[in-house]
Amino acid sequence: MLTKNINFKNFKITQPNKKVSVILKKLLKKDNEILNSLNRNYKNSYTKKTLSKFKNFSEIILIGMGGSILGSRSIYSFLKNKIKKNFYFVDNLEKFFSFSKNKKKQINLIISKSGNTLETIVNSNLLINNKRKNIFITENKNSYLMNLAKKLKSEIIHHNNYIGGRYSVLSEVGILPADLMGLNTNKFRRLNFLIKNKNFLNSLVLNVSNTLSLLKRKKTNSIILNYDESSSDLFFWYQQLIAESLGKKSKGILPIVSNMPKDNHSLMQLYIDGFKNNFYTFFFVNENPSKKINNKLLSKSFEYLKNKSVNDVKQAQFKATEKVFQRKNIPFRSFELNKRNEESLGELFVFFILETILLGKAINVNPYDQPSVELIKNETKKILNNY
Q1: What backbone phi and psi angles, to 5 degrees, belong to 292?
Q2: Alpha helices, DSSP H only, in 30-92?
Q3: Angle in degrees, 0-180, between the axes of helices 70-78 and 342-362, rounded to the nearest 10
Q4: What is the pLDDT of residues 150-165, one digit of tens each?
Q5: In this structure, which CATH number among 1.10.230.10, 3.40.50.10490, 3.40.50.1970, 3.90.226.10 belongs to the domain 43-187?
Q6: CA-to-CA separations, 253 to 218, 345, 375, in angstroms, rounded
Q7: pTM exceeds 0.70 for this model
Q8: Given strand 106-111, what is the order of strands in its sheet?
Q9: What is the per-residue pLDDT across 288-301, written as a single tens digit (0 to 9) for each?
Q10: 6-29+189-362: CATH topology
Q11: Cα 103 from Cα 244, distance rounded (Å)
């Protein structure tokens, strides 16, 4: 068990790597802005008074890219059953929504660390109007969005410049939207508690140790077998976190999100009997209650479904696939959540962020930058200037 909320089965490959333990100890001792944002005592750059100005808005339109929006989107999807407001996520070009006609109840929340993100500027340009209010989260520096916010006399919330987008989920970038969702944001930041949990720390070190062992064996594809549709956005957040943090110096891990049990009928054959450079993460959330199967429609050959719920069927498929992978010696780890709440989601955020930083330092890459992404941005500007 990782925590009281999360059952965790680790890879069964190797012993804890002493190097990983040393890196973790140093990391936890050092003053680190990213880790500070995972602590309960982190101070947001907005106040309750600021928050109260926007409580009555029933539709929030989030405009951003990558780490500026993936975290809040994963929070919304994972905890949607608790949220009464409508949130729309504009995180690509040519993706628009039909909003209600009552623009007085709507607000744009525009997020960009640099304040110069091309797609965010384009979408903001299309969605800002005189009737809808705006909040900007951006660094306190001269940028397009900072200047636009001042021109519009909009609310400006400062983005901590030491926290990169993909690590910002529990800073203002993810917590302000979560506050607007009406969630208990005090329960997300779990690092203070988790570093006192020996089982959590031991599991983390062993998990990273095993992943390093897999990388040495040229297993570089990380396939997430996700049995919870509401967690798909969580793993798209995780996908960026792992890929952008570790993909340097011809190293890295390719994270691929697979939707289960749907992909039993398309990809599972390859996962079991195809090429052997993959390792797997199983993910399941115990939902209670879930819809029951109609017994009256069952034939004798399907009586094993009698009195079963949809959740029962998914859990059986989850466990069956684990057993097959064990028999085939396919490396995997499993997360099984006992509760869907702010605490359990916060614990996953902390685990995955720590895992990523430890892996980066262990394979000798900087887990905090993304130099090659800038190449595309620069080339795009050149092309647009020549049109």
Answers
A1: -90, 150
A2: 33-36, 48-52, 70-78
A3: 140
A4: 999 999 999 998 999 9
A5: 3.40.50.10490
A6: 10, 23, 21
A7: yes
A8: 86-90, 59-63, 106-111, 133-138, 155-158
A9: 777 888 888 988 89
A10: Rossmann fold (3.40.50)
A11: 37
